[in-house]
Design goal:
This protein is α+β, with helices and mostly antiparallel strands and 350 residues long. Helix content is 60%, strand content 13%. It folds into three domains: 4-124, Orthogonal Bundle (Globin-like), CATH 1.10.490; 132-190, Orthogonal Bundle (Helix Hairpins), CATH 1.10.287; 200-348, Heat Shock Protein 90 (2-Layer Sandwich). The strands form two sheets. Strands 2-4-5-7-6 form a five-stranded mixed sheet, with helices on one face. It is elongated.
Length: 350
């Protein structure tokens, strides 16, 4: 029976195949990283490496930097499975294998420690970026309020211009209120608390029209259209549903091609009420599709690439929309292809 590092190198595909059979679907995206880490562990065993010069730790650090939105629980589960699968595949009776096993577990411990350290760094970067973007986003309406207040304090200001200034203050205050509400909703969800909704029978067509009215005021240069193919009566929190639809329309306006209309289509069946927001535009990158509903992942990717363009906003809109739909018993997803992006949200019909 060969020594453990030799066995790992010679049987790497067999070990990874066993690892895949034992892995949950959420862990399978880390198959490539698991293979790299296992090869590095073999090098650590052969060299009797310490933590300061561990190839496994370096490999984890490098691998996770290519996936800054990684989930530390999934990485921990991937490494735990290596600790289970390798002994099941290589089980010699040779007493000299004890030292190889000790080095194997040491190398895995080094890898786990590096994964935790990278996650802590990711959390700190994301927190700093989130706070910085929130401060930046709040500064714009605050500046407009400050300028309007200065204008209102002038004795020579015409009454019609004062009314415009008051309306501007009201709009900016509403914008800030929406930002703060989204951040609070996001914080509650991270603490495991469900969003509060007050459901009652409502006319969902009215919710669609109100969401369109809100978004047209925010994006006056965009063309928004509405179609319905059936009666839309349901049970929902109409204010929250309007917020979800407005968020989907706003995301479509950001992702769609400039000058192309954005369509909100609503339909119903015996099981579901479906809202589709469709915009024309270029296809999305795999990273964008994978992290579109996860603001933490988006911020982690942005924080890991300081030379790239920062996100245009906090990225909470789609997350909040999905939370609203899910607390109603529905969901929302996005698909892209054929020059279109479609956000599809649904509610149970009853």
């Amino acid at each position: 029976m060969p020594r453990l590092p030799t066995f790992i190198v010679d049987n790497i595909d067999r070990i990874i195949a066993e690892w895949k059979r034992a892995a949950l679907p959420t862990v399978l995206p880390f198959e490539g990283q698991a293979k790299q880490i296992l090869m590095a562990i073999a090098a650590d065993i052969e060299a009797n490496a310490r933590q300061s010069d561990s190839s496994a730790a370096v490999t984890v650090r490098t691998a996770l930097r290519t996936r800054p939105d990684f989930d530390v629980q999934q990485v921990g589960e991937a490494l735990r499975l290596l600790r289970v699968v390798v002994p099941a595949v290589w089980n010699p009776a040779d007493g000299h294998a004890v030292e190889d096993w000790r080095r194997f577990h040491d190398a895995l411990d080094f890898a786990v420690g590096e994964a935790i350290a990278q996650y802590a760094l990711q959390v700190e970067r994301t927190r700093s970026l989130l706070l910085g973007m929130l401060g930046h986003d709040l500064r714009t309406p605050l500046s407009a309020i400050h300028m309007a207040c200065q204008y209102l304090g002038r004795d020579d200001a015409p009454s019609d211009r004062k009314r415009e200034a008051v309306a501007r203050v009201s709009r900016c205050a509403g914008t800030m209120e929406g930002m703060i509400r989204d951040v609070l909703d996001f914080a509650r969800s991270r603490l495991g608390k469900k969003m509060a909704v007050a459901r009652k029978p409502v006319d969902l067509v009215a919710a669609c029209h109100e969401a369109l009215e809100d978004i047209r005021a925010e994006h006056p240069r965009c063309e928004f259209r509405f179609e319905q193919t059936s009666c839309l009566d349901g049970i929902a929190d109409i204010a929250r549903l309007r917020q979800a639809l407005r968020n989907l329309l706003d995301s479509a306006s950001r992702n769609g091609a400039r000058g192309m209309p954005i369509l909100l289509h609503a339909s119903a069946s015996n099981e579901r009420i479906v809202f589709r927001v469709t915009c024309k535009g270029q296809g999305m990158s795999p990273d964008t599709m994978r992290t579109m509903f996860d603001p933490i992942a988006q911020l982690a990717i942005a924080g890991a690439n300081p030379d790239g363009n920062p996100p245009a906003d906090l990225g909470l809109e789609l997350f909040i929309a999905r939370e609203i739909l899910r607390v109603h018993g529905g969901d929302v997803d996005v698909a892209a292809g054929g020059g279109e992006t479609v956000f599809e949200a649904w509610l149970p019909a009853r």
